[in-house]
Transcriptional regulator
Amino acid sequence: MRLDFSVAVHSLLYLQAKQPEKVTSAQLADLMAVNAVVIRNTLSLLHKKGYIKGTVGKNGGYTLTKKLAEINVGDLYDLTIPPILSYARFITGDVTANALDPDMASDMATSLTDLFTLADDHYRAFYHEFSMADLAQDLKHHGYFKTMAKEKGLI
Amino acid sequence: MRLDFSVAVHSLLYLQAKQPEKVTSAQLADLMAVNAVVIRNTLSLLHKKGYIKGTVGKNGGYTLTKKLAEINVGDLYDLTIPPILSYARFITGDVTANALDPDMASDMATSLTDLFTLADDHYRAFYHEFSMADLAQDLKHHGYFKTMAKEKGLI
């Protein structure tokens, strides 16, 4: 699941590095050692949201439509890893009438769902603090993210 | 995986509700509709860390050793869901010598690992803002977590 996010950021950075050349999904599959279907699904998302333009097929390929500084990492995270809609499978409690304490189980499900949802909102906010230009900066100077996260009081 | 956390908080709240009675792992398995092995593994962790005391076997059972306000939700999260040690399977890039761009792939792996690790630290910090007394409060008055998270500037 999280791989889709990595494919998105890796693709965008490679497109940026290769500008003004077009890059094909086959090249990206090669670059990342990831199945071409995963690549194409992610490129399709990026295309739909206007991050890249291009065509498939002979002489096809993609180029970036935005500057890295204009691309928010959190937006890419939300796009490729949508929030979990139901936390049911992470929650305990038998709410059937004959259970030991169905009322407590029902309350637990509500409270834990709220807790997980709020924690996930908080988690995503972290990614929204960075742009793809920051990621490019960290690629060249590892440790940049950590310094920024500390300066912003995020960790 | 995250189920272990739910089992831990559910168990502790039930033990608190039943005080001074002892509660058995069989009762907890019944309460949560969760396999008894999962329950026993979690109880063993809670016992080792001194959150509960008690014995297995005939006339066995567990009681709480701490007040809910003394139990940090983040400590329980870290105990039951340890941080991922390697993000390798979420990271793209072929670093072998014949790959398209092994240097970029290697830099991507480092930067994405840092990004994921920092985001996880930030995520866990959310849980550390709450005690089990807060969770008990939210069980009775749903929405309490959300109000607190907003007041604390977490979301």
